[in-house]
Design brief:
Helices cover about 35% and strands about 15% of the residues. It is α/β, with parallel strands linked by helices. The chain has a single domain, classed as Ribosomal protein L13 (Ribosomal Protein L13p, Chain: A), CATH 3.90.1180. The radius of gyration is 15 Å and the shape is globular.
Length: about 140
């Protein structure tokens, strides 16, 4: 019994070398248009900016709230990417919730997706950046409890 998300309208996106915010906004728009999207290699997406500034900013973000009561903040690379996409969706409305359910995010490439055609998003490529950047994997390593 396979994943019901994998079907004709499913797109597999390789996040390697893609800027997180640009990728998230494009993916959110496609989800709202009814596509099923699977993002693989989430840990290889990048955030533009100085490494230390990004890590310090994320540490400040993690201080908001109470550890047991919430809000709970993602620390794993796949959860960080999924949360970024959720932030681009009208999540509190039914169409946003339905769109979010059509999204799957994985670290690496799962066995059932190996050999399937994958696409990338050229508009979100980190090759266009002229500044420094940090991968989600590096960020995740620095913010783990």
């Amino acid at each position: 019994m396979g994943d019901p998300l994998i079907g004709e309208r499913t797109r597999i996106i390789d996040a390697t070398g893609l800027v997180l915010g640009r990728m998230a906004s494009i993916v959110a728009k496609r989800l709202l248009n009814g596509e099923n999207i699977i993002i693989v290699n989430a840990e290889k997406a990048v955030i533009s900016g100085d490494k230390h500034t990004i890590i310090r900013g994320y540490h400040d973000y993690l201080q908001i709230g109470h550890p047991s009561k919430g809000p709970l903040h993602p620390r794993r690379p796949d959860r960080i990417v999924k949360r970024a996409v959720r932030g681009m969706l009208p999540y509190k409305q039914p169409r946003g919730r339905d769109a979010f359910r059509r999204l799957r995010v994985y670290m690496g490439i799962p066995l059932e997706l190996r050999g399937k055609p994958m696409e990338t998003i050229p508009e979100a490529s980190a090759n266009k950046l002229k500044c420094r950047y940090i991968t989600i994997q590096d960020l995740s390593r620095h913010i783990q409890g």
